[in-house]
Amino acid sequence: MPAGGVALVASVAVLAAVAAFVSLRYRRELAAARATVARGSVMAATGSGPIEYGEQGSGVPLLSIHGAGGGFDQGLALAADFVDGGFRVIAPSRFGYLRTPIPSNASDAVQADAHAALLAALGVSAAIVVGVSAGARSAIELAIRHPQKVAALILIVPATYTPSSPVDIEGSRASRFAFWLVNIGADFIWWLAGKLAPSVLIRFLGVRPELVAVAPEAERDRVARIVGAIEPLSLRFAGINVDSIPAMRRLALERVTAPTLVISARDDLFNTLPAAEFTTREIPGATLHVFDTGGHLLVGRGQETRDVVRAFLRGIDQAKWQAAS
Fold it and tell me: Which of 60, 110, 252, 261 has the fewest CB atoms within 10 Å distance of its CB?
């Protein structure tokens, strides 16, 4: 065989071996991701239908409502990032995420009713409610529609309505590419991008990659876990579609009676700060805390966020939330 033919055969063999290795690793890691979300949660039969949820800890009930791309697992992880111990964390998968089905009407108001139904099914009379990103919408609706269920309301980087400068994905070509990946539910491409171009996915999640690059190792690891935890993307795709369909509308924020804390960051690439400021102005007595940096994932702000939340809970009428335990 000519030397050129030998080289071609060798190149093909190498490419085939690499492809086989990549395929094997992908299948193993996707199987592990599927196994992870298949355990650690239960299905609750509620007045609003079946709802998947996870639960950790003991103490004061805390309902942790995840953002886009999440599920009960993200809700548990976010609660661990932002609050100390002493809480019974209840983390539902919102409509279309993991095992929670989508009803015929999947509006934020109906989702809020489902949150209330889950608390009722678990025998929880009231809870501290934490809504993160897109999860802030149904958290606010819960406080409006079921005020007796909400002992305190905490909104973190809220992807909610504002009359100007709306929340949106960052407009770079890389973020548009990542959004395309999400829209086609591409497990493999998301996985591969996480290996070869994690900065693309980090930017898509609302954080400047250079901020993560200079963060402490533990914080870089946290961001990597968040990126990886979106897999299996295919099991979250239906919920992402639910979050993407409706145009955000103004809620009756003036009807929120629960003590409210709102947290955002000036460099959030999802532009949640204007929404956070508007929400704070409209909810009576609400408190706003803004970090100069941190992005949508509040990179490097974990301890400070816990301190802010702790001070907020200390500063309100303790009977309002301790009675929930």
Answer: 252
